[in-house]
Design a protein that fits this description.
With 378 residues, this protein is of the alpha+beta class. It folds into two domains: 1-172, Cysteine proteinases (Cathepsin B, Chain A); 197-222 and 254-378, Cathepsin B, Chain A (Alpha-Beta Complex). It has helices spanning 19-28, 39-49, 68-78, 81-87, 96-100, 103-116, 125-132, 144-158, 162-172, 213-220, 286-289, 299-303, 349-353, and strands at residues 60-61, 121-122, 174-182, 188-195, 198-201, 224-226, 232-234, 239-241, 243-251, 255-261, 263-265, 271-273, 283-285, 306-317, 322-329, 336-340, 343-347, 366-374. The strands form five sheets. Strands 5, 10, 13, 14, 15, 16, 17 and 18 form an eight-stranded mixed beta sheet that branches. A four-stranded antiparallel beta sheet has the order 4-3-9-6, with no helix packed on it. The longest helix is centred in the middle third of the chain and has 15 residues, at 144-158. It is globular and about 65 Å long. It starts with 18 loop residues before the first helix and ends with a strand. 37% of the residues are buried. The structure holds zinc ion (ZN). Zinc ion (ZN) is lined by residues 182, 184-185, 187, 234, 236-237, 241.
Length: 378
């Protein structure tokens, strides 16, 4: 009942999910003893890779063993100039064996291949091979939201420079404050936490469809009463009491990632997809969407919550057999492209809107991840 109890689940997703990635990493940790690179090498890399970004040439990625999900997520990373500016400054591992298993390095190599190549698409084979060391397998239908988190955590773990890790965190991390208030004695506890994506339910607690992205956002930050079997133990009252649980938005990053929870888990472990119509805007002012009570931020922070849509990772097909592609608006050209594995074509905003979904087209394309980019201050 994932969608139905969407809000109860919030707390579970608050911490940056690392578990699977971390486990995989422990296994390769022995190989990971990288030395600080000599500076000369570092600089050489900058001169090789620091050419320019995709230079208005959008390059495709060949599908190697059901890698459409990875390809879509990678394109969203690569088209983000703020991200590539960080990636370019990584320390290059010293030894070939270390290079093979370094996700940041393999991503940088791939980006460089995409920029340098004259061909319309390149093979992400070395990166795919590298990721297999971290249990990101080929020929498996991945969940784009999970894969995004996995990649991000691997990048963060393997970028050796603390300042780059800090920049990566700043670029993507959403800060929230969780409030838990006893409804008998009104004592309240607060806890700050961070998330990489906002996992928005697309149905409310009565399984009614939320009509717009803005409705999903408001619903996500709505307080929730914990009563009956959901009651919590209150230390003041010395017993289980009803609580009011709420989450307030504290800070939004440069790149805001929204995960529309369209995959619905029924009790039978059968997952089905919610493909109904759910529009999202090209321009999003989060401070205008949320109420005063749903925020814990000053005016200058809230003034910076103005976003433009930058990317959409869309899923088509069923949960067991599907396909991903990415719609991305070039930050330099400001034109939309559809990245469908090796095929890249320029598209219109109307084409992007086709990912709003349709309740009668269960196999149709639906937006699954949304990436918003903070606007420059006016
Ligand atoms: Zn109490």
């Amino acid at each position: 009942m994932e969608q139905r109890s969407g809000r109860q689940e919030r707390s579970k997703e608050l911490e940056l999910p690392v578990s699977e990635t971390m486990k995989a990493e422990e296994e390769v940790q022995n190989n990971e003893e990288e030395d600080e690179e000599p500076k000369a090498k570092d600089q050489k890399l900058t001169s090789v890779f620091g050419v320019a970004d995709l230079k208005n040439r959008a390059i495709g990625l060949y599908n190697v063993g059901l890698s459409c999900c990875l390809n879509s997520v990678l394109q969203v990373f690569f088209m983000n100039l703020h991200f590539t500016a960080i990636l370019r400054r990584i320390i290059v591992p010293a030894h070939p064996a270390q290079k093979r298993i370094s996700v940041p390095y393999q991503m940088l190599l791939l980006l460089e291949m995409m920029q340098r190549g004259k061909q319309k698409a390149v093979y992400p084979s070395d990166l795919v091979c590298c990721l297999s060391a971290y249990k990101v397998k080929l020929f498996v239908q991945h969940d784009a939201a999970q894969l995004f988190l996995t990649l991000w955590n691997l990048l963060k773990k393997q970028m050796k420079k603390p300042e780059l890790v800090e920049e990566l965190r700043d670029l993507y991390t959403i800060c929230v404050q969780q409030h838990l208030a006893c409804q008998k004695c009104y004592s309240e506890t607060k806890r700050n936490s961070s998330m990489l994506t906002l996992p928005l339910p697309v149905l409310d607690s009565n399984s009614h469809i939320l009509k717009t992205l803005e409705d999903c956002l408001r619903y996500f930050f709505d307080p929730e009463e914990l009563t009956d079997h959901n009651m919590c133990f209150c230390e003041q009252c010395g017993k289980k009491t009803p609580f009011l649980q709420s989450m307030k938005l504290v800070h939004l990053p440069q790149t805001l990632t929204i995960h529309l929870k369209r995959f619905c888990f029924e009790q039978s472990a059968y997952i089905h997809k919610l493909s109904h119509y759910l529009p999202f805007p090209q321009e999003l002012d989060v401070s205008a969407v949320l109420t005063e009570n749903q925020c814990q931020a000053d005016d200058s922070e809230k003034a910076a919550w103005k976003y433009e849509l930058f990317g959409v990772v869309a899923h088509s097909g069923s949960t067991s057999y599907g396909h991903y592609c990415a719609y991305i608006r070039s930050l330099t050209e400001r034109k939309w492209y559809c990245f469908n594995d090796s095929e890249v074509r320029q598209v219109s905003w109307d084409d992007v809107k086709c990912t709003y979904g349709h309740s009668k087209l269960h196999w149709g394309q639906t937006a699954y991840l949304l990436f918003y980019m903070k606007k420059r201050p006016q």
